[in-house]
């Protein structure tokens, strides 16, 4: 008998779930629920009341209808790799896990579309079509474990989003279970559909508008040729100026990543690529792609711009093996950082490219003020920073101090005209910073849309929007919760 | 004294408008209202009760607040070139015309952004930045007269949208006056913003969610080099197969347009380009752009694919003058058609590229069945058809028959997995076909969002969504209007 703090009797709800997905599809033992307590944002934890594992759209609709009838909140979860707590359970919630929804439903090479269930792993999409010369562009670092459903919820990015855009640019249509259990189709098979673009609203809505159960993705032709350049600089400024100059020259690299000295040394300590110079203040990894002639010409143009900005060395890799060697350190950077420091806190902010030098200097100063080292590994072309704050969670109060530093970095991003999130979402982690970017009227408008989808507020409530409960700062400036009490209709 | 059929006393409303924009900013004489009776869809006409011409966001907000207070509907209008009746006045409405909102508010070349008022003409944006090597990509045929605000409302496309996307892909942020007069910011300066993507919902919402008063556009670097190819074919099938083969080869042309024999001859009769062969069953105009080497290699690849598919001749133009000559006939095609026939009705549908040959044959058969000639000039690369039905409006009942034929063409598009609109919007013209593409649950979901923005239904009501009032067919299958009576909250 499961009876939780609120007095909710879960027995009849669990029985209904078992009737839908079978006893094996329902998890309710305390020890088994443990693994669902958090997602990639491990500093927040909350145990769900029950976990349900559907296999089909109809399963999800039936489960959600039960939640709607009992007015219990539900949270959707893919692989649980999200870094902002979007899939963090809330108290007394039903956690709907898509781990058994892993079918690739259709592949249409002629029209460059693939339809998948939400539990399908990101890299499987490319694997399914690469033999025919296609790929799926959005490539979060976690792509070998993260789910497409989670990517849709968080509007995930990746290294190649500079040229090809984030998840929302690659989702054509969605079959969605709304918070009342209705099944609707948003978008469709075509790039543009008549009526309101609700696909765009849904992508990045972090599970607050319903659950996507079928996702139609756009796939791209694999480029004929790729070059990867590694350029090293004796100053962050020179590397930053190089990034701006490349874009100003009209070149849009497939990816353009920067790593600072601390990251370079962490990577070389652990991964030993032997190609990242330990004495460089910054390196740039730049990938150019397209026709063979295009990749070659652009590689030479990029190399020239790097040298004009004082790069000491510029290596150009053409063969797949050489390219993977150059990328290896970047891909392993977060893991390497984990070996350098007992704990690290990764932040995700965006700035205009033109503020790169200023912001990196300020981040260093903020780190020094708080007594923490901050390493920088990031998508330089998009201005999407990932400052990694190194700390030791064993020190009392360290996490709070680190979160404060992280918050100051986000405010710095907003100050220069940037954003509090580039590709990790808002989730539970950053909702208190939303008023930094939006007026109360802006946030209210979003909340009206939320209510249009979810009038009873049972779909992943407490995420995205600031609430006075959890965030003292937001309580002053965020009237968005007031909308819950406003009768607009 | 203006007192209309409904008994609405307009005098106090007009006085309030005059207080906001001055007497010169308010039009209420019958003869002056005449020009506002229709937009580009000239077969529908309705006189507005009053026309107001604001200059600023604050003017618009004040005007809309008056409308909200008196509960009178308002319709926004840019240049009035829309082809689906999106800016068609409705009975006893206030028409808010953005013709005096024509300031380019800021140009930020470094971050590739331009902020404009909604009345700014599409081509002015490119003119403002072309000297510095930039351009604004969406290029509707009407780009020298249509407004950016209208482009946002209708999510306009154009020749170059195959490679670069339609308006929604180029709008970063919007300042919007909501239907209650509140001013909010949707999106912002960055490609991705946290929270719901309401910019995406607003673009293409045809004035039903509010009025955009400041629009932040993304501008692109002008490509280094451009080639335009003209290939002529002895069959539509061969031209269609060429289109598919070019895309399958991984080439994304800047534009890929097809014209059939009737269009070719109409153009040569009127424009006399002397380069479109009159005996060709179809021609393709294909533009490739990028680096000089890339444009050259792709032009040769495209030419080879055209020849493999039986093209009789392939001309390649590199110089600006030669390129403009090749484009001249295409750009003048609609006007030429107007000289060939007393009237023409232009339809706008989308099909998967792979259905091109089948659909063009079916359109010809449908035309023959109804006794009308149908010319085809269209964006072949996107599968975005523009069948032009030639008719004489002086014949009694002709328009009704032509509209019926147009409707059958749209249903054909839907049948093969396409869409009832590519770039002209739904407006007043096509709302009755929405149930062909969407279930009632899909349409209800859109209507909930509409209500979230516009609870009193005063922003361009009767557009987009099917209503039993105007469309017998839709009345059977479209329960979407029922939502107006549903209390969701």
Automatic annotation (TrEMBL), chains A, B:
GO terms for cellular component: glycolate oxidase complex. One of its GO terms (molecular function) is FAD binding. Its cofactor is FAD. InterPro entries: FAD-bd_oxidored_4_C, FAD-bd_PCMH, FAD-bd_PCMH-like_sf, FAD-bd_PCMH_sub2, FAD-linked_Oxase-like_C, FAD-linked_OxidoTrans_Type4, GlcD, Oxid_FAD_bind_N. Residues 44-222 form the FAD-binding PCMH-type domain. Pfam families: FAD-oxidase_C, FAD_binding_4. Keywords: FAD, Flavoprotein, Oxidoreductase. SUPFAM superfamilies: FAD-binding/transporter-associated domain-like, FAD-linked oxidases, C-terminal domain. This is Glycolate oxidase subunit GlcD.
